[in-house]
Amino acid sequence: MELAQKYTKQQSDDPLDIVPEEYHRFMKIFSDKEVKRFPPSRKWDHQIELLPSFEPKAFPNYKLAPREMEELDKFLNENLEKKYIQPSKSPMASPFFFVGKKDGKL
Questions:
Q1: pLDDT tens column, 24-76
Q2: What predicted TM-score, i.e. pTM, was given to this entire model?
Q3: How far is CA 64 from CA 5, 26, 86, in A?
Q4: What share of the chain is helix, strand, coil (3-state, %, to 5)?
Q5: Could you tell me if 36 and 30 are in contact, meaning their C-beta atoms sit under 8 angstroms apart?
Q6: How many beta carbons lie within 10 A of that of residue 106, not counting itself?
Q7: What does the alpha-carbon distance between residue 96 and residue 91 come to, in Å, rounded to a whole number?
Q8: Please, what's the b/e burial string for 37-68 (b: 16 or more CB within 10 A of its CB; e: otherwise)?
Q9: Residue 79, C-beta contacts closer than 8 angstroms, at least 6 positions apart
Q10: Are the C-beta atoms of residues 19 and 10 closer than 8 Å to each other?
Q11: How far is residue 78's CA from residue 72's CA, in Å, rounded to a whole number?
């Protein structure tokens, strides 16, 4: 608790001032440059092979408000550009929903 209080009182935005000194050796690993880099494809990349007899079931899509659609498009475009995600060929998808934050952002 003392450690959290000590570093919470600091007003600097410089990570060297905010992060406790004993963790400075890990800062490169968590730098913006490293975080925005995705690991290269490897020989063990995988895909799920479906049986030839598999037929996906149709389910209704969740309806999104215009603001949610904008945020979804923004998220998809940013993450496709960074190669965090890839276009899918799957006939199935996983549903999701937005959870509003206290400041009103999605």
A1: 998 888 777 767 766 677 787 777 888 999 888 877 777 888 998 899 899 99
A2: 0.50
A3: 41, 40, 22
A4: 35, 0, 65
A5: no
A6: 15
A7: 16
A8: eeeeeeeeeeeeeeeeeeeeeeeeeeeeeeee
A9: 85
A10: no
A11: 10
